[in-house]
Amino acid sequence: MISITLKSDDSVKYFTIEQIKKHNKKEDFWTIFRDKVYDLTDFWKTHPGGDIILEGAGKDMTFLFDDIGHSHDAEILLKQYYIGEIEKPRK
Ligand code: HEM
């Protein structure tokens, strides 16, 4: 059998703010960062800044991240935790 993986927009997952808000626990920690959605459940324990990152669970942590003044490397490491996009209301 031939299996073909197509890379298209259909493979992108979209989540509503309401869905994201539910993932606000240590053991189930999603966050929004620059309009993208990340699952940080496996990352937060190794965060160099410690538990304070939990403040961003279930919400948009872009401001908190920028306010502290993180390195570009910190942004790059987020890529591996990417799970999708925020669903925009249809026009
Ligand atoms: C978007 C997710 C986040 C990632 C991937 C992340 C990653 C990192 C990394 C790699 C560092 C080491 C220094 C650097 O490279 O800049 C760091 C430091 C730090 N982070 Fe985060 N961070 C995130 C969110 C946050 C949030 C939301 C807060 C605060 C509410 C925070 C607070 C801090 C603090 C205070 C330090 C400094 C630790 C020190 O130098 O002793 N971080 N973070």
TrEMBL record:
Keywords: Heme, Iron, Membrane, Metal-binding, Transmembrane. GO terms for molecular function: heme binding; metal ion binding. It is found in: Membrane. GO terms for cellular component: membrane. InterPro entries: Cyt_B5-like_heme/steroid-bd, Cyt_B5-like_heme/steroid_sf, Cytochrome_b5. Its main location: membrane. Belongs to the cytochrome b5 family. This is Cytochrome b5 heme-binding domain-containing protein. It comes from Dictyostelium firmibasis.
